[in-house]
Amino acid sequence: MRYKNIISILISVLVMLIFPWCAVTFISADGAMAACFLLFFAINPLASVAIGIVSGRSIRTSWFQPGLSASFFLLGTFLFFDMGEPAFILYAAVYLLLGYTAMLITSFIARKSIRRNYL
Length: 119
Prior knowledge:
This protein is an all-alpha fold. It has helices at residues 2-26, 29-56, 59-62, 65-80, 87-118. The protein has one domain. Helix 1 (2-26) packs antiparallel against helix 2.
């Protein structure tokens, strides 16, 4: 399980920290706006759901991953964008909710399939 935690943490760092830095650093101002929309509305939610699915398979060892991903998002946006913008906190809350919902659904499905195998 340790390697799954490390992989999820690396994916969180890549998506929530490195991608915004690349958008701010390497893309022009006009393209950076489109890149940020793509990040905030497509890539980050998908990454949050994927991390929730991975952590839902073993909640005992991976319960912290969706929260860590949302924290990395807040850290990345506060470092590379305007620090006083309260909308980023709302985005982080939505990513946190998406991650934990995916984790709980995955855990429920895994438990149901284990019960079915015992019967």
